[in-house]
Amino acid sequence: MAEAEIRARSDGVGFRSERGPILISLMLSIGLVAIDSTVIATAVPSVVANLGGLAQFPWLFSVYLLAQAVTVPMYGKLADLFGRKPVMLFGIGVFLLGSILCGLAWSMPALIAFRAIQGIGAGAVQPMSLTIAGDIYSLEERGKVQGYMASVWAISAVVGPTLGGLFSEYLSWRWIFFVNVPLCLIAATVLLRNFHEKVVRRNHTLDYTGAALLLVGCTLVLLGLLEGGEAWAWWSAAGIGVPSAGLVVLACFVYVQRRAAEPVLPLWIFRNRTLVACSLVSLCVGAALMGLTSYVPLFVQGVLGTGPLVAGFALATLTLGWPLTASQSGKVYMRIGFRATALIGGAVTITGSVLAALLSADSTVAQVAAACFIVGAGMGLVNSPTIILAQTTVGWADRGVVTGNNLFSRSLGSAVGVAMFGAIANASIRSNMDSVAIARGSGHVFVAVAVVTVLMGLAVVAMPPTPIP
């Protein structure tokens, strides 16, 4: 058992409270992870011109997402065993090392390998940030804190590609990674000086076999989902064999977890109805977000005939609506409960996704932006309460692994979304890239997103009513 020395008191959630520096450090850390998932997008031409490897550049995105996703569950378990602070500092340190190496990369394969190191560090930062916030803030305050953290993702969605373009044009693409150095040092220093936790030391039996099986199995499954239809055909030997091998390894992982003294991912999580429902919601959130963020810009540019900047702002409304409602969700769920709040958010999200599915070549950019804003507003009322509910369901000793499992589900949803929506769109777009084909392919994706949000709503309905502690 362990508990944070800094306790949630009635001093507000603002940055001037004694917990303010910790919150700033968490937001800065999340910002680094969020920005680096998008910052390289606008720098790809400069990177390819300098290093070559045009055919390999998609791996710069895939390997980062993959490394981040597969390490999240293990970090969650380690945080419950040894405390949040050392795991968070380790993640920031690995992310810093990866950033330096990326800036020094001499070839595309080297840059891809170093992006994987960045992803390994990022895999600790996001779940630890949410777990630490759950430790030091009260139930009433966590909704507003979630809003602050969600706003970081909103800002990063706009700032990331902009910074990538500016550095590439006026300095060098390498500064995309070097700029992380002082920011990582600031985040680590603030956390080191201000966050203190007491951890009762005891002997631990680390489940190395389970950790290795989870890492290998998740890597193979996510690799199959991310690269299926791209690096290899879905029905090829690799398309079938890679994810199938991953499922076999994960089956072995389940067998090992049944007998492990301290399992990496305790199987009781999957017997808890509330936690399973929360994970399914996160899975659907990840998939829906991937569909909209991938195909709204394509639709706005290819069908409505706008430039990249306008398309970016149309999509940005999605990440603007999210923190606005997430920051107020605490007031709502304290009054009507987690499940009722998530049900309202689910209804709003479904409404926005249906509006997106009705978009056509005659639609305006404002209509696209409005649909995205409504989806984002709904997500803020769904995602934040379900994460907080999952954290509230367990005590300190299990909060890390539960938060990690929730975020892993979201990452898995994103990977599934990449595969599913890519296959749907490619059926209409690959043969013909004119506006009619793009409109048809994007429209099919938006309909699929609407279906996913309906499934998300059903997962919320399946949640048992949970009283506010």
In summary, what is this structure?
The protein has 469 residues and is mostly helical. Helices cover 76% and strands 1% of the residues.
Features:
about 475 residues, mainly alpha, Growth Hormone, Chain: A, two-stranded antiparallel sheet, disordered N terminus
Topology:
Layout: E1 2-4, H1 20-36, H2 44-51, H3 59-82, H4 84-103, H5 108-136, H6 139-170, H7 175-178, H8 180-194, E2 197-199, H9 208-227, H10 237-257, H11 273-302, H12 308-326, H13 329-336, H14 338-357, H15 365-393, H16 396-429, H17 435-461
Antiparallel strand pairs: 1-2
Distance between the termini: 20 Å
Strand adjacency order, main sheet? 1-2
User: Which range does the strand content fall in?
Assistant: under 5%
Task: Summarize the main sheet.
Answer: 2 strands, antiparallel
Count of individual helical segments? 17
* CATH-level-4 superfamily name of the largest domain: MFS general substrate transporter like domains
Shape type: globular
Overall mean pLDDT stands at 80
Estimate nothing, just give the exact number of structural domains. 3
Helix residue percentage:
over 70%
Q: For this structure, what is the CATH class of the largest domain?
A: Mainly Alpha
What is the CATH architecture term of the largest domain? Up-down Bundle
Poorly predicted spans: 1-12
